[in-house]
Design goal:
- It catalyses: L-threonyl-[protein] + FAD = FMN-L-threonyl-[protein] + AMP + H(+).
- Keywords: FAD, Flavoprotein, Lipoprotein, Magnesium, Metal-binding, Transferase.
- Its EC number is 2.7.1.180.
- Pfam families: ApbE (PF02424).
- The chain is α+β, with helices and mostly antiparallel strands.
- Among the domains are: 134 residues, no CATH class; 98 residues, ApbE-like superfamily (T-fold), CATH 1.10.3980.10.
- The longest helix is centred in the C-terminal third of the chain and has 25 residues.
Length: 381
């Protein structure tokens, strides 16, 4: 037997050194369908991990490769039987996500988006073609949701203290001053040269509400080019993209659980996806309270105040970027506005978990489903 090629320290730190281990595991598991074994950690490196796990149906083994990026865990789950090609593509996809973070982040000084925010009030800034396409998508969703989704709302997050996770109650004049710099009307997109310009100082763009989904879409393109057809990828579990199906499952796609608003170990049900994406927005972890009143981090860019009346909003769409953006918009719009949107956009689906009106305990909730057409499987009560 030939000696194995040694793994460099750089490969180890980036996770590429586990590809051979994944292949060996995939070969072993592919020949042991139906056997029982414990979940086993195959390999781990700084910021990378892979684990082998058996599907609950007992006949299909999955591999799970993950890395931390964009302040959350990104992971790609695929079938062990797909072997080294899927393992290598998954690791390549995680590398791509890190590259995109270095393009999109506003928290790093030298990213492309940070440069736009520095310069675009003074001159038109040419951006990478796919970034310009993302800007156009955001513009379209902003218009189609009547302003409920807006990537220029950063000044509002700042005035409410959410950019540093130090919530504060601003005065109305502070909110009004922030609103003066919010709105797509301040962005000038020029398609011929793919440039962006701001019409006044103080305007900024931020892809926090759509960046994870966009990264998953780019990963999907890469996985397709590598010939991988069945997988689920997620960013922080709130942004999910699927291709093909879970071969060990009972459905025609992949089942994604929707979180329970009060009990972390429970879900309100599953949404079944195939070749679709799902995004979920909520303020369950980022909020503050003053005098018994709760303020969440999802701010209505039209009013300048945090939205309320929704626990979580989930959107289903063809792309993960669109699903992420729509989830944010649906949270702002609430059941009424979401119903209107879905009535005129049958290609989009939605699921809103909302506090039950008139419930003094605050524990009861209602689930509103739109355009899911049998893909929504409520949990047993």
């Amino acid at each position: 037997m030939a000696d194995k090629k040694p793994t460099s320290r750089r490969d180890f730190l980036r996770g590429h050194g586990i590809a051979r281990t994944l292949l060996d595991a995939a070969r072993n598991v592919a020949g042991t369908a139906g056997s029982s074994f414990d979940k086993k950690a195959l390999a781990a490196s700084q910021g990378n991990s892979a684990e082998l796990r058996h599907h609950s149906s007992g006949d299909v083994a999955h591999l799970y490769t993950s890395r931390r990026a964009m302040a959350c865990e990104f992971a790609i789950e695929y079938h062990a039987a797909d072997g080294a090609d899927a393992a290598s593509a998954a690791l390549e996809g995680l590398d791509l996500i890190e590259q995109l973070e270095n393009q999109l982040s506003v928290y790093r000084k030298h990213t492309e988006v940070a440069e736009v925010n520095r310069l675009a009030a003074e001159c038109a800034v040419r951006v990478e073609p796919r970034l310009f396409a993302l800007l156009e998508l955001c513009d379209w969703i902003h218009a189609s949701t009547h302003g409920a989704f807006d990537i220029t709302s950063g000044p509002l997050s700042r005035v409410w203290g959410f950019h540093k996770r130090e919530g504060r109650l601003p005065a109305q004049d502070e909110i009004d001053a922030a609103l003066a710099s919010v709105g797509f009307n301040h962005l000038q997109l020029e398609p011929t040269h793919q440039t962006i310009r701001f019409d006044r100082p103080g305007v900024e763009i931020n892809f926090n509400s759509v960046g994870k989904g966009y990264a998953l879409d780019r990963v999907a393109q890469l996985m397709s080019e590598r010939g991988v057809g069945d997988y689920l990828a997620h960013g922080g579990r709130s942004s999910v993209l699927t291709r093909g199906r879970d071969r060990g499952g009972d459905t025609a796609g992949w089942s994604v659980s929707i979180p329970h608003p009060h009990e972390r170990e429970r879900s309100v049900g599953d949404v079944v996806l195939r070749d679709q994406a799902l995004g979920t927005s909520g303020s369950g972890t980022q909020f503050f309270e003053i005098e018994g009143r709760r303020f969440g981090h999802l701010i209505d860019p039209r009013t300048g105040s945090p939205a309320s009346g929704v626990h979580t909003a989930t959107a289903v769409a063809a792309t993960a970027a669109e699903a992420d953006a729509l989830a944010t918009a649906f949270y702002i719009l609430g059941p009424g506005g979401t119903s209107e949107y879905c009535a005129s956009h049958p290609e989009a689906g939605a699921l809103l978990v909302c506090p039950r009106e008139g419930d003094p305990s605050g524990q009861l909730f209602d689930v509103h489903a739109f355009n899911l057409h049998g893909r929504w499987l409520p949990a047993a009560t």
